[in-house]
Write a structure and sequence with these properties.
Family: Belongs to the enoyl-CoA hydratase/isomerase family.
Strand content: 15-25%
Number of domains: 1
Shape: globular
Keywords: Isomerase
Low-confidence stretches: none
InterPro entries: ClpP/crotonase-like_dom_sf, Enoyl-CoA_hyd/isom_CS, Enoyl-CoA_hydra/iso, Enoyl-CoA_hydra_C
Number of helices: 13
Strand order of the largest sheet: 1-2-3-5-7-10
Largest sheet: 6 strands, mixed
Helix content: 40-55%
GO molecular function: isomerase activity
Protein name: Enoyl-CoA hydratase/isomerase family protein
CATH architecture: Alpha-Beta Complex
CATH topology: 2-enoyl-CoA Hydratase, Chain A, domain 1
Length: about 270
């Protein structure tokens, strides 16, 4: 007698799953004590989940959201400290950060993000790289890299200029100012901004329409459109390398300390660059 296939999602610890539609898989980032921040476990899981979804014949569309009132509050401080101090951790996280971006891009199934509350770090990566991004009007999107003291790597260079233009991308990526959901929709950084009460229903509605649509046509259209992002691969690779070079320098130590101590950072006045 043949055995039932193993559940490909049983191994995940920081990601929870449900089916709002038979062919829609909803992925919920779950680290409730830390506003769904990406610790070492979640960071690794966000790199592999898109490959599992891509291979799953029962899934035609996926939704990514966060548990409770937050999408994701960014990288866990303990993980960042280990990245700074330990080469093996730094190398592993560089690979995971690369895989998160490319696996979202290369996942054949359409991905919808449903964002409320703060969206920072690895969660924001997947949220903005999603094929359709939906935010609440009062959501707060923040690329916090330069405030931490490292280059804006992750997804920033590959997608922000394409979505909202170079002028807005430089403004928000250099200054790390928060972008409200309403403003993100206005500048083209996200697909839709809705009232908080409508977010979940809207994401399910769109995912259902995609799941019930022509699968080959939708997946081929996504593949073709994402060639815009694949062309920017060398730019992304450079930004990610510069980010992780920054984890070996002085700026990030002060940036992390200021976050932990909840104070304004005092960065060095000079740079060899």
């Amino acid at each position: 007698m043949s055995q039932a296939p193993a559940d490909p999602y049983a191994k995940y610890q920081r990601l929870k799953f449900d089916r709002p539609h038979p062919r829609v898989l909803r992925v919920t980032m779950y680290n409730p004590e830390r506003l769904n921040s990406a610790d070492e476990i979640m960071h690794g899981e966000l790199a592999t989940i898109w490959q599992d979804i891509d291979k799953d014949p029962t899934v035609s569309a996926a939704i990514l959201t966060g548990h409770g009132k937050a999408f994701s509050a960014g990288g866990d401080f303990k993980m960042i400290e280990k990245i700074i101090n330990d080469f093996e951790t730094r190398a592993r996280n560089w690979k995971e950060a690369r895989d998160i971006v490319y696996n979202v891009i290369n996942c054949s199934k359409p991905i919808i993000s449903a964002i409320r509350g703060p969206a920072v770090g690895a969660g924001l990566v997947c949220g903005l790289l999603a094929d359709i991004s939906i935010v609440t009007k009062d959501a707060r999107l923040i690329d916090g890299h330069t405030r931490l003291g490292v280059a804006a790597g992750d997804h920033a260079a590959i997608i922000w200029p394409l979505l909202c233009g170079m002028a807005k991308a430089k403004y928000y990526l250099l200054l790390c100012d928060p972008v409200s959901g309403a403003e993100a929709e206005r500048i083209g950084l996200v697909s839709l901004a809705v009232d908080d009460a409508d977010l979940d229903a809207k994401s399910i509605e769109i995912a259902t329409r995609l799941a019930e649509g022509a699968p080959n046509a939708i997946r081929w259209t996504k593949y073709a459109l994402n060639n815009w992002l694949r062309q920017m691969g060398p730019t992304f690779d450079a930004s990610l390398a510069l980010e992780f070079m920054g984890f070996t320098g002085p700026d990030v130590k002060e940036g992390l300390a200021s976050h932990v101590e909840k104070r304004k950072p005092v960065f060095p006045e000079s740079s060899p660059l």
